[in-house]
Design goal:
This protein is of the alpha+beta class. The chain has 2 domains: 158 residues, Beta-clip-like, CATH 2.170.270; 37 residues, no CATH class. The chain contains 4 helices and 10 strands. It has a 3-stranded antiparallel sheet, with helices on one face. The longest helix is centred in the N-terminal third of the chain and has 13 residues. The two termini are 15 Å apart. Zinc ion binds next to loops. The site of zinc ion has 4 residues, from loops.
């Protein structure tokens, strides 16, 4: 275990409580009705306030900033959202070219129609400046190699006024405390870059 993760493990001040339990529920863009009102409200509040629990960021030599679990998660638990400025109606390449402040490594293109971009370049969301956004620290891992342990899911909260749309990371399998959380960027460049680190 990395020294940084061991230090995190020994830090008893880290707050712990239960994540949203979605066991048995398939979170899907096409099936927003699979989340009940209470689950949607909890999910929306956590996204809005960035008050996720059971995760922390650490710096590891090979990866830089990483996202790590500090508690156990069950398969399909929603762990964190990918949070940032929402940009609609612009092609990904155009947005990166036209926006000097945007760091391409922190911009995620959501390809469901209508497609949009989440720009998580800033550690602090403009709307929620008091909270750090942690989802942006999840590193890449190739799902074909079985290393990825979380996956992003596009969710429309259809029972909440305005039908807000969020992108969450859910656990692909049971995850033990102090595990690095990684998802597949599905990007050839990232897959090549991270290949040796797996
Ligand atoms: Zn925010």
């Amino acid at each position: 275990m990395h020294e940084q993760i061991r230090r995190l493990r020994n830090d008893k001040s880290r707050r712990r409580c239960s994540p949203i339990d979605t066991s048995g529920v398939v979170l899907s863009y096409r099936q927003p009705e699979s989340l009940n009102l209470q689950q949607q409200e909890t999910l929306h509040e956590r996204c809005e306030k960035q008050n996720w629990v059971g995760i922390s960021d650490v710096i590891l030599p090979e990866f830089g900033r990483c996202l790590v679990s500090t508690q156990k998660f069950k398969k399909d638990d929603v762990i964190v959202d990918y949070h940032g400025r929402v940009v609609e109606g612009v092609k990904f390449e155009d947005y990166i070219a036209q926006t000097p402040s945007a760091n391409e490594n922190f911009c995620m293109e959501i390809k469901h129609r209508p497609s949009y971009i989440i720009d998580a370049t800033s550690e602090h969301c403009v709307k929620h400046p008091g909270h750090r956004c942690l989802g942006r620290f999840a590193n890449h891992a190739d799902s074909r190699r079985g290393v990825a342990n979380i996956a992003s899911t596009d969710v429309i909260l259809d029972l909440i006024p305005g039908n807000p749309r969020v992108v969450v990371f859910r656990a692909l399998r049971d995850i033990q405390p102090f595990t690095q959380l990684r998802f597949d960027y599905v990007d050839p460049v990232a897959r090549a870059l991270y290949k040796e680190k797996e």
